[in-house]
Amino acid sequence: MPSTNNRRPGGASLLKLQPVDTGAFQGAAPGWLVWGSLILVWLASLLPWRLWQPTPDVLLLALLYWCLNAPARVGLTTAFVFGLLMDVQDAGLLGLHALCYVLAAYGVLWLSHRLRHFNAWWQTVQVLPVLVVACMLSNLLGAWLNGAWEGWEWLWSALFTGVLWPLPEILMSLHPRRQGGDGAGP
Amino acid sequence: MREPGTLRLFKRGPSIEVRLVLLLVLCLGLIVTDAHWPVLGPVRSALATVLYPFQRIVLAPRDALEYFDRWSHAAALARDEQDALRRQRIEMAQLSTHAAQLATENEQLRRLLNVAESAAQQSVAVEVFYVPPNAFNHRLVFNKGSQAGIAPGMPVIDEGGVVGQIVRVTPFTSEAALLIDDQVSIPVQVLRNGLRLIAFGSNEVGKLEVRYLSTSVDVRTGDVLVTSGIGGLFPAGLPVGRVERVERDPGSGFAMAIAEPLSHPERYRHFLVLRVDVADVPRPEEIEHALDQQ
Fold first, then answer.
1. pLDDT, tens digit, for every residue of B14-35?
2. Which A residues 73-132 touch B at CB under 8 Å?
3. Which residue of A has its CA nearest to B170?
């Protein structure tokens, strides 16, 4: 599993030497929790409740949450794989969901240093544009290749997903090992 | 600042930007390939086979609930169904005697004409497994696939008429495009006057379109469209739709008929896939090739 450390290597040489998993001291999420929650949410996404188009994409939400809070485990590749699985499930063009997920995951990883300075509500404001842009690009491409514009439901879906951003934060704060906040709160 | 859980002194693997570009190229490649060529079929089929057990597990509570619901209402349902069937039987009685008479007559005429007797169509009963949530197309996924002898191209019918056509098959599931999906086109005939046309999925949700008619064409509101049997995939005579209105555009010189499908895929869960011989039907590429050679 490659690291998703964004620090530029050109700075102080000490920055390179950070062998200690500081995450553990901040209550980093254990692997079973990350993968368990992702698989659970993915299974939930197989249910027919997503037939209503503006439904929030909880799988994307979970992926982005773990991209921010467990970047060592969940990154672009994970987003790609889950996106591909959703494409097969939805019988759409292979790669459309994957594209949206990869773009959104990159957006969150790119913003991750910044996001950690804010609480969940302010993070929502910054994650929303990422979600909208990622969903927009994949939907525009889909509309172009399918030759039809299928309405603005995807925008509602992206907005609802964004509004739900604090939800995993709240759920995780209930976890007994993580009362110190999960590294994202102030 | 987070580091991976294992002791790691130096960054390894490509940087995030490199991975982003690689994955984006992969995504775009997949999307464009899938939109234009059918080469990704095996990949999708393999992924779908991996997905299948999970789908079964996740949908098991729903199926169990439905089973229990049906079981608890079994008596009432059976009574209702019996009433409906009785009514239907009375309505059909006259028709069926007439049809039997016509069938014998037809057989006799066919023998006279030395035409091969049309074999009874083999079919597979399927049930809707799930409806894929996709804004771009109208599809249904059924619970049987190539294991049950289903192949892409086979028509799907319900008691109202043609529902759609199988477009993708995995070992345990199959995917049908509904008539209203704009990827489906179906050769039809106006029942009233035998006029042969082609119906497409419409831009208007839930409707069919018959395009490129000349403005003087004899199609009226209320006309029933049935399959014409041309093209070899859809057997002749299956009801397809009823014409709702005809839009004549004197500017372009063409007319377009909007029809409402006679089948109701949204109401039922059980359908019939007709196992026509898909291999016998020439593919569009072969026809083009043959035309080129001439």
1. 788 888 999 999 999 999 998 8
2. 75-77, 80, 83-85, 88-96, 98-99, 102-103, 106, 109
3. A88
Residue A150 in contact with partner chain B when CB distance is under 8 A: yes
Kindly report the pTM of this predicted structure: 0.71
Mark residue B279 as left, alpha or beta (left: phi above 0; alpha: psi -120 to 50; beta: remaining): alpha
Level-2 CATH architecture, domain B185-261: Beta Barrel (2.40)
Nearest Cα residue in chain B from A184: B1
CB-closest option in B8, B23, B34 to A102 = B23
Spatial CA neighbour of B255 closest among B243, B263, B247, B266: B247
Domain-by-domain residue ranges, chain A?
51-178
Q: Which of A17, A146, A150, A153 to mutate to test the interface with B (most CBs of B within 10 A)?
A: A146
Helix H or strand E encompassing A2? none
Looking at the complex, report in whole angstroms how far the Cα of residue A161 sits from the nearest Cα belonging to chain B: 16
Per-domain boundaries in chain B: 16-61, 73-114, 185-261
Cα–Cα distance for residue pair B267/B274, rounded to 1 Å: 20
Q: pLDDT value at position B75?
A: 85
B183 touches B137 (CB < 8 A): yes
| Residue B152 contacts residue B128 (beta carbons within 8 Å) | no
